[in-house]
Amino acid sequence: MREEKKTRVTCSEERGIAVVSFSNPPVNALTGEDYETLAELFHDMDAREDLRAVVLKTEGKGFMAGNDIRDLKTHGPESHAAYQQKLIDAFESIAQCRHPVIGAVQGYALGAGFVFAACCDIVIAADDAYFALPEISLCVISGVGYALKMLPEGAARYACLTGLPLRAEEMLRYGAVGRVVKREDLEEEAMKTAERIAGLPPHAVMYMKELINQHCNHEHRRKFKLEDAYTGRLFGLPEKAEAVNAFLEKREPDYGRQT
Questions:
Q1: What is the DSSP letter of 64?
Q2: 96 vs 70, 93, 174, 206, CA distance in Å?
Q3: C-alpha to C-alpha distance for 98 and 48, rounded to whole angstroms
Q4: CB 239 within 8 A of CB 139
């Protein structure tokens, strides 16, 4: 088994299966550096002929809590586009990786965590998992295209417009996750799925993923840039600053009943 470590991302390999794990206590929030690290790692794995499957998992109570809000607060209209490019590079490095990626999701998958799950080929969810896109409460418009990839339109509208969570069993009914298992069985089930794929003809698997991606061409890069443009329209508005400040100060926002 080979293991390497890059900041908060670790990767171990055994019998043609790579296990990528992310850990950033206490809630697994992501920074620009984390996106760059994940993108670099998945691009490297994409070029490998000896891999057969990848498991993406995290350590801790929840899968990922989305972007680090303190990191986001440092960005204005000028730097926001570059920051968003890091996100799309990380997301698409998983979606376009030639090797199938199995996501093991426990607890919360919020914002970017929701999107990372949507980029996986198969999601195995723990019975305590829930998925949400709460960005709208922070005046950020993001993840809509990936929500529509994972969910039927009505459910995606609910998730995006309310920011409220969808539980693992609901996601299973929508076909957004492949299996729901007990929390203690999550990693074992994800590895069993990866081992099943790793035992199949490797080129057939790679070509199957490539074909599925072509059939389901969701144009996520274009859609994400469109979402970024809409988020850019929110910069400079009083509600944008109030939303972020209220979150960091752990209080209810006051938008002044603006009409």
A1: B
A2: 30, 5, 23, 11
A3: 9
A4: yes
- 114-148 in b/e form (b: 16+ CB < 10 A) is bbbbbbbbbbbbbebbbbbbbbbebbbbbbbbbbb
Own/partner long-range contacts of 216-221 (Cβ < 8 Å, ≥24 apart): 216/149, 218/145, 218/148, 218/149, 219/145, 220/88, 220/91, 220/92, 220/95, 220/145, 220/146, 220/149, 221/88, 221/92
Tokens 């000028």 locate to 78
Give the residue with greater pLDDT, 182 vs 3: 182
The type of residue at 139 is C
How far apart, in whole angstroms, are the C-alpha atoms of residue 207 and residue 141? Answer: 34
More confident residue, 135 or 7: 135
156-210: pLDDT as tens digits: 999 999 999 999 999 999 999 999 999 999 999 999 999 999 999 999 999 999 9
Q: At what angle do helices 220-234 and 77-95 cross, to 10 degrees?
A: 160
Tokens of 80: 């926001």
Structure tokens at 218: 């969701």
Coil/strand/helix, residue 28:
coil
Round to whole Å and give the CA distance between 251 and 114.
Answer: 24
d(CA 25, CA 28): 5
User: Which residues, other chains included, contact 49 with Cβ-Cβ below 8 Å and sequence gap of 6+?
Assistant: none
